[in-house]
Amino acid sequence: MMKHILWLILFCFISNLHSQSILGKWKTIDDETGEEKSIVNIYMKDGKYFGDIVELINPKQSNPLCDVCKGENKDKPVLGMTIIKDMELSDDVYESGTILNPSNGKVYKCQLKLEENNNLLQVRGYVAFFYKTQYWKRVN
After folding, report:
1. pLDDT digit string (tens) for 16-46?
2. Which residue, 105, 110, 106, 115, is CA-closest to 135?
3. Rounded to an integer, what distance in angstroms lies between the CA atom of residue 86 and that of residue 2?
4. Ranges of each domain in the chain
5. What is the pLDDT of residue 121?
6. How many CB atoms lie within 10 A of CB 86?
7. I want to staple 120 with a disulfide (CB 3.0 to 4.6 A). Which of 80, 96, 114, 116 is the partner?
8. Residues 6+ positions from 122 with CB-CB distance below 8 Å
9. Which residue numbers delimit the DUF2147 domain (predicted)?
10. Per-residue pLDDT tens for 55-100?
């Protein structure tokens, strides 16, 4: 009986940790139009957080390329692209990484923060002290 109680406590603890995490799939919402754009899967690798575009919602092309991107992402498919890189958790904010906007090809410093019962992700991209904020919705 005691063994079952310990397993239940451990399960609840692990479930609570995951629910307070940014890990999982998020629906991106354009901050200017309110349009749903894509699904991004956020995962952890080597102690840092990354995000890949795993689905495009109503794409204008079947498999668009990032022709405005520079470097390694130049002319690569947007679907499957890693847009969030090297984020680290500090208190309740994920920071110290970058986010790529495939629409304009620019890379910004990034800050991520969970809101509204961990079902809304505040995504903030920075250039110097200027920033833009989007709110992404958790996909169940």
Report:
1. 444 479 999 999 998 889 999 999 999 999 9
2. 115
3. 41
4. 2-138
5. 98
6. 15
7. 116
8. 111, 112, 113, 114, 115, 133, 134, 135
9. 24-138
10. 999 888 888 999 999 999 999 999 999 999 999 999 999 999 999 9
Residue pair 120/136 in contact by the 8 Å Cβ criterion? yes
Q: Which two tokens stand for residue 12?
A: 């609840």
Tokens at residue 5, please? 């109680």
Contact by Cβ (8 Å): 42, 49 = yes
Question: What's the token pair of residue 107?
Answer: 């890379």
Phi, psi of 9 (to 5 degrees): -65, -45
Where do we find the tokens 């102690």?
A: 47
Burial of residue 65, with CB atoms counted within 10 A of its CB: 0-12 exposed, 13-18 middle, 19 or more buried: middle
State how far the Cα of 78 lies from the Cα of 64, in Å rounded to an integer: 6
Residues 90-109: tens digit of each pLDDT: 999 999 999 999 999 999 99
Q: Please state, in angstroms and rounded to a whole number, the distance separating the CA atoms of residues 128 and 59.
A: 31
pTM of the model: 0.84
15 CB contacts (<8 Å, ≥6 apart)?
Answer: none
CB 18 within 8 A of CB 42: no
